[in-house]
Predict the structure.
Amino acid sequence: MSSLRLLSSAVRRASSTVPLGRRGYAEAADKIKLSLALPHQSIFSSADVVQVNISAATGDMGILANHVASIEPLRPGLVEVIESGNTSKKWFVSGGFATVHPNNKLTINVVEAAPIEDFSPEAVRANLQEAQRVIAGNGSEEDKAEARIEADVYEAIQSALSSK
Amino acid sequence: MSSTWRAHFTFNRYSQICARALRQSLKESERVKAEKRGLTALRYQHWEHGEGGEQVYLVPPEDAPKAPAA
């Protein structure tokens, strides 16, 4: 019991020696370490970035330095990485998980992703029409569910392309 | 909205479907490279009492498969 009190007082003492960073809203001098990984490729590997915008299942969110720890499943949608200044890079991801660790690290693991420039709007439109045809047709429930998932992805790509 | 897929698929299958949809939407040059990632050439075999059962393709190939050596 006394060791627990000793431990908690040590933690309190330790936290008071850490300098409190001043966070202004205008400029975020603190950066968060981002690791954006696919099964076959590592896009970012502990790189310092200013802000990461993700489309989580619970809604779109922007992650800055010192974000609270959380695990978010990702919808098929955009991941926007703002490294410094006003430049941002966008990738469309098919889904995965974003994990904010307590030590100012962000790990995004996705199944498949591509830069937004690598998409072909004509291919997306054709695929979406095909998927909608399957949904409206008379295949099995499984085929229709599969087509519904694909249609959601294609619609998300279309809105990502149009918003860029 | 489309959590109706939960009745038919596992989350892994859902992830693979989304990834496949993304790969099919890329520009032609990128798509050729990406399609290779979608290939699954897995075979599995159930062993019991020291004997192997039939080798089953996880994703049956389109053409006639070569008979696996017993």
